[in-house]
Protein: Protein kish
Amino acid sequence: MSALFNFHSFLTVVLLGICTCTYLKIQFPAFFEQRTGFRGFFWKAARIGERLSPWVAVGCFTMGVSVIFF
Structure:
């Protein structure tokens, strides 16, 4: 099944996308200057990762435990 039809996979993809965009914004800040259009999506994901980092970390930890044990 694709990640769109399986909620667990969808959450995993979203969390990985947020974490990846946040990391890449720290490494390559010029790529994330555009706030509209296609690259604006990555800017917004990086902003979520910066602002909600404790919640994203808890989500990643919970998803990791769920992938390993369930």
Remarks:
- The mean pLDDT is 88.
